[in-house]
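Issue: copy button drops trailing tokens. Both records pasted manually instead:
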Amino acid sequence: MAAVVLLALGWVVADQLTAALRISSQPSTAPAETLVAAPASPAATYDAVGTVSIPADDPLLKLAARTYADALLGRTGSRPTIVEGPIAGAVGAATVVTLAENPPADDASTQAQAYRLTTQGPLLTIAAADRRGAAAGLFALADTIESGRPLPADGLVEPAMGLRMLDSGAVGVTPDPAAWQSGTDYSHNSLAFRDAILADAPYVDQAALAEDAAEFRAFVDHGLQQGYNAIAINGFLEYLTFDGVGSGTDVYADDDPHRLRALAMRESFGPMLEYAHDMGMRLVLKTDMLALTTPLEQYFERELGGVDVDDPRLWDVYKAGLHELFQEMPYVDGVMVRIGEAGTVYDIPGWDYYSRLAVTTVPSVRSMLTAFTDVAEQDGKEVVFRSWSVGVGDVGDMHTSQKSYAAVLDGIDSPALIVSTKYSLGDFYSHLPLNDTLETGTHRRIVELQGRREFEAYGSLPNDLTVLHQEALQRFLAANPEVEGIWLWTQDGGPWRAGPMSLYLKTGFWQLYDLSAYAAGRLAWDPDADAAQITADWARRTFSDDPATVAAISRAMALSREAISKGLYIGPYADLKVKALGLEPPPMMWIFEWDIVTGDSAVLGTIYDTSRDQLDRAIAEGPQAVAVAQQMRDAVASTDPATWRSQDLRERFVATLDYEVDLFSTLAAYRTMVLRHEQWLDTGSADAKAQWEQARAQYVAARDQHVAAYAGDIDLPAYEFAAADIGLERADRDGAMAWLSRALLTLLVILLLLGSRPGQRLLRVQPDGGDAESGGPRRPVPGALALRALWVGLTRPWKVPTSEGAGRLDRVLVWLIPVLAIVLSRSAYTWYAAPAHLVLVLGAWALFLLVLRLSVRGRDGWMLWAGVGGAAVLRTLILLVALAPRGPGGYWFSFWTRPDSRSLYVVVAFAAFAWVLVAAWLVLRAQYGMTRRGAWGRLLLAVAAPLVVLGGLVAAIGLESALTAWNDQMALLPWGLSRILGITTYLGIPTELPLYAVALGAVLGVIGALLYATSRRRDAVAA
């Protein structure tokens, strides 16, 4: 009956485990992305223009006119004269900009940006209702000329998308090689303006800010020239005094540095930020929520009793701050709010402006947005809310679920609200479907695009996203009339200093991913533009005017997406929508966030299992990517160096393609190695093992070459293979651990069988002086009684024999055999490479057995060792059966990928584990004569000891640190989890869990102690 109950409990545990893992997959449909190269063609020719007339002394129009004049100079050799106001005298060849009273377009959202071209002989007129439209016309003409395209036909030109926003690039970021050298700084904070913002008065370094402001102006000008009209830049709390809260000094006292810094930053940073506004760009400050400082948090503690996002008074404070921002900095056109990411990875150590992941419920998000949009409507501003909330609380799937999106946002109909959403159904990876939440809702929408793809080598590889972005924009515009803009990240996204030190417009090969910004700006005006021509135009503007060179670069870029999608992804897995642990792992995973080649069993086992029916394709894609990258390299390297405007850019281009070939060669060898190893774990095939060993040698050689060539390179950094090598080391030991497990399993079975009645007959000999013919009684050999006791303890612990007749060897073996079985089996289970796991497991066994033994001190421990030891050996046998086929690698492969096998094992293993506790209780009752109360008391004390001691140990170390050490040694989950996101954060594990274990142990210990104390006298009498 007990066995049935224990097996039933095991089934419940297995069922709950399966529900927790929630591993599943289904097909996913990503955009097709058919790239072609534009044919070689010479640049168009243009007539010289003598005069460019702009209507007024306006900084935006002057920039546009200069840009247009520079383009004409580059093509015609003649620079036109720029005139402010009407042209006096004969006109001749001229371009005239006029501002008409009547708008040239009917659409109110774009009429200020629209313009009309009219040609009358040598006179070209740009007519617009607003200076922004007039400037857009000049910028577009300049781009046409620099790209060598024929001038456009007369007619109305208006943007398809009225809002075209950029991030702030690398403005204010110091290109410090030492900060990028290690490549392991995964902080997401750009540290922008750290040179200009001081910790103490006067709070701003004016000389440093002057340099940063020059960068900001150059960035704004570049964005305007590419067709953008908005910019988002970090900042919010840094500019607030919260004077509108209470008496004005309730949050920050008069002399509080936060107040003084805010005033200094408004005064110093204000003119820099105002430049964007003056140039016709909408200026948006972006922040994570909750944004906090220590005094602000203390205010919430005093007034609200804590940081309670469900308390309307909290949002009243932020409303006051937002109103202050709009009033004191009127050139700020709006704020952008993100709730889905926050915490230390985004904060600056020692800087008292930080964020917290706190707005995670539907009511709190709605309260926040209602509060912010109320202020924005009142002040004539806008609130941009990012729907990025993946995995965060109740709103965790708002980014990818239309249902959740509606639950959060339906009914918030403020005209001041704009919802910003990534174009892909997930993060900025390839192989993902387009995000269908952008096709729903009644809110104003903008589409987020990433130019410097963080997950695809941080923009260091050629990566032409033009067709992908075009397909996304065309679909969303057709499906949802509320889609009105884009937000293109030129630089931001992911860690800033873990990849190459390429900083947009500043240093490194930033020209490579400037294609994304250039193309997105063009597509936002005209989503139907020729994508291949856009890429060719970028090549002509950036690298060379030679048709053959432009065509070669275009061919290389047309191959870039195939190289990326095969070289960095394993197609059969990437083409599926996989779910695990309640999350949606991204389509890459074998390269985890962002350059860490993983070696964990969960990811690699799942990738193999989902690719098993297409294993040849999964492996073949690696060499195919290398071949494509080599074609790209050959195309660019074959160009005539004399045709390039910059030899440095040519060298950088060839070098990055050499890097791509090398990287993909290394990754191809690695993918073959791990997939063949997983195949061997799955099938035991000798061919798979031989292919794995061959690929292993190729990987090690390729890895060493890659690291030797690129380690420490701040332009083309080596990928991180620490996690891969941990997995490799354990894979190398799987065979040996399997044989060790088989040997130990065989030995234990033999020893146990020798403890059975038939076995005991074999272990009896004639006493000294006797012989077989005499027919006298035979005695057991030394150790036989220990084997008998363990056999009975395993099968019938309530009938464990006493130690009568046991010799010294028997008394040693009765505890040594179970101890060695536990130690050796758990060591094999951990590849003899995970001391953290052994400390917990062996420590738990040791504490449990020690307390049990002390609870019967003064009495013979023989029966306790026999009963508990026999049960422990049974649990060990079950583990060894799982390890014997192909070692711990095979054990974990089945755990992650074979739910039926996993459930069967968990049911039996849990029942066997629980049987150890049952056996201990039975021995205490039957063999030591304990009362029920006494037996329970002693058992509970034994169970409590490891919970309190080991729980306390883990609590002292810290759960995240303990899990990191354990996972690094066991290689079960991605190695990068703790270094980037945190295992506890990513999996939602409460950091207080060790304290819960201590508390549970303490409760059990108290109950056990009371039971022990109240039964001690009776138990002593029974003894």
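Record 2 (pasted manually too):
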Amino acid sequence: MALTNEHVDAAIDQFSVLYPFGLDTFQRQAIETFLHGDSVMVAAPTGTGKTVVAEFGVYESFRRGGKVMYTTPIKALSNQKFRDLRRVYGDNVGLLTGDITENPDAPIVVMTTEVIRNMLIQSPWDLDDVDCIVFDEVHYIADPDRGTTWEEAIILCPEHIQLICLSATVSNAQEIADWIGRTHRPIELITHFERAVPLALYYFYKRKLRLVIDHDGNRIADYDNTGGEVQKSFQRGGMSREQRVRFEQEEPQPWEIIQSLKNQELLPAIYFLFSRRDCQDFAQRMAVMGPNLIHDDETADQIEDIIQAYLESMREEDRELDQVQIITSLARQGIGFHHAGLLPILKQFVEALFSRGLMQVVFATDTLALGVNMPARTVVIGRMSKWDGQRRRPLIPNEFQQMAGRAGRRGMDEKGNVVVPYTPWMDFGSALEIATGDLLPVRSAFAIRYNTVLNLWDPPRGDRVRHMLQQSLAQFQSARRMRELEDEIMEKSQKADEIPHGCLIGYEAGDELLRDYRGINSSLTTLKNREKRILRELKNIRANTDERPWKEPGRQALRKLFKSLPPGQPVHTRDYGWVIYLGRGKQGGIGLFLTPERVELISEYRQIDYMPSPSLEVELPERLLELESPVDDLDELLTADEQAEIWNSLAELDLPNLDEQIEAHRQLLEKRFAEERARLDEDLADVRRSLEELGSVREDHPCHICDRRKEHQRNLKRISQVKRERVQLENRLAKERQEEDERIANLIKGIRDVLHRFDYLHRGQPTSKSDTLANVFDPNGLIICEMLDRGMLDKLEPPELAEVFSWYAYDRDFRFTNKFSLPKRLVLLRRRLEELEREVLGTERRNGLLISTGHSEGFYGAMRAWCNGSPMVQVLEQIELSEGDLVLAFNKTIDLMRQVREMLGQVMPDHPVRHNLEQAESLVRRDIVEQSLTAGFMPIVSEKAPDHVSAPVATDGSEPEIEEAGTSDTSTAG
């Protein structure tokens, strides 16, 4: 039943009392959209309160007794969100991050996007009872590493689920919303551009903070002739060493900026840099200057208490690690640093101190700006350029605004501040252009992967894979560019018609006649293309109206399910409706199924379009369970009463009337597309009428039979500006059409050929090997599965097995000293592995693919030493890596071994490597590595729940427990 405006307003007012601040208009609009049953996408700056909308989705779904899934792009954010929601909803919250499975059947489950994507591919029926999914930080769709996961999750998401998508401000938010609306279901975009805490921009020059843009957005000062002296000198032929040193010495030091911020009471601050080494070095230099950031004994005591709490949670030997010693020493002075190479527990330590106001400055890389809830009063952008792995380049406005968005703590600061230091490497004007420039659009980073292909492969051509590619944001963006090009071509054609030309046989209006004649031909071509496009769109509408109103289970998922499915399971099929599974039989195919008239053998998985919960079952007579082949006449097997009893039992299961749903869905789609279909039919009639009229006009045209027409045409000014532009557009359009068609065709062919080459497909059909690769989600899954298939891992001991997997876990492009050596056995294995990788990578390259990456050449030995009992301190003495990088590589190794172990448990439970993998995981998961897996999962020191902790009461009348409050903490929405 539709909610009235009064009900909506009452629901929002009831929810809003849980917050210490009133809801903004955009938040109310988004919540109203959700309450009316629609999906919603919110695009707003960091710190404006987007998360409130997601929290309402959780609140409302829980209140009405539904299930909600909250997804984030990285495990750290999932852990943080789990803690936040756990303080409100208690044991009603679960967590799934791959490493951690906590309360997975809870009504509220937090997970990484990878987890939900895997669920949608492998067991889509697990989402049958999900009401709402929150996709937090959805602008990650442009991330080269994670973007594909986001797109696949949205494409595969069942239509019955409401989506709440949260995004930073991006210039093409409407395009992303349009794509989601076309791919999943209609979604309303709510945009908001005003920050809750206004920002001012300062330029730090000659030891002073100089206001450039005030908190009202007004330009106050100009330093156009300042900065960039060294950069400019390169253009003029360079400068002397003395000049360069003088300018570099004028570049302000971080301690000077922090001291100035302290004097003006603008701390705490986050000081962003793009080098891990700089973060630690500048923090230590800051400490040497004795900044006196801790003013009272009470604050010092609180810091010491938290330090001791974290130290007590660590082994004594781990407390001696350099990072631990440095970070705790800095913390006592109110200073910290934060980057990806920091131990997870130390990241959590820095976040805990900073969020409590006990740390006044944190030097951090820009990874901190990607979602961790750690706002500050001031943000310093210490560098206006960064190394992106290929070159040093200026920041783009998106990156600047992502970091600047951390300034200004809602509920604590009336104003936020962003500081850009003077630098001789970039002039003030360029820096200001970055700081105030328009955001760049989000572009799809979609890239197909082997396990996706095998899970969706529809023999023999992989049509479902093709459909996935065609549903991608990349394809949507490409199609939109082509539509825009068509419109531009028509505009150029109209302009070209206005160009006069002379006639060679004396017609006064000869140029107009020739222009008219050429225009007719051009218009005919354009009209024919438009006719094709309209017909294609009408065909797509007809295809859409024939779709099922639910996401059909994939072939791989059904194969796995039917390996262990008990007889008596109801199954819905395309041709027979509801049937009952009797068993495998002995004639191949999927198995035997009981229909109202006979026992049928179903041989194609595509026949099965819906699977209810595997817990449903119909009791069957023994005669049916013993059948080995189809039966044409059911009366020969069962009496009429027995048959009636079976179908009555099926009816009592209260299965959904899918035929009604299909018909209702078809009518709904026909209604939804009726207006568009009518418009297209009208357009088609107009186009065909115009084609007929123009064809007649051309036949009667004087230029049509003129013997000097070509000569006249050659005399025209062929390279006019308008024509060049039109031809360029037409070429671009044709090229983009051809490239897009070829790209998809070549991509599918390339993947198919690689999978055929390594025997995962045979003549378009999945082989017995396909189930292994279908369940390994790592980019190097093909190499790892080939190692398993060729027996290269069978005789390895658990420490050696973990060592081999670790070679695929370190992925930084960074040179470092490594004093470890490998035993001869592993050296020989590594040589065999290199031959295998050359074979795999060579096959991929020949097929135009860049999927596998191969093992890390420089990372070896550390995992074997760790599994053999060496403490972390000793391991680090042998390899020049930070503690955090090493632990991160170990964690990735665990995740990869877990994937392979779980795959073997499903596909080859008796494989000798499976048991060794389990032992290897237990050897790795000890001490600080084990601790890092749960760092952030549950707080080491108690946290106070935010002011809006009162949870809704579920429809069953239960009320969740709320954890006891502890040390003061300030939480911001958004």
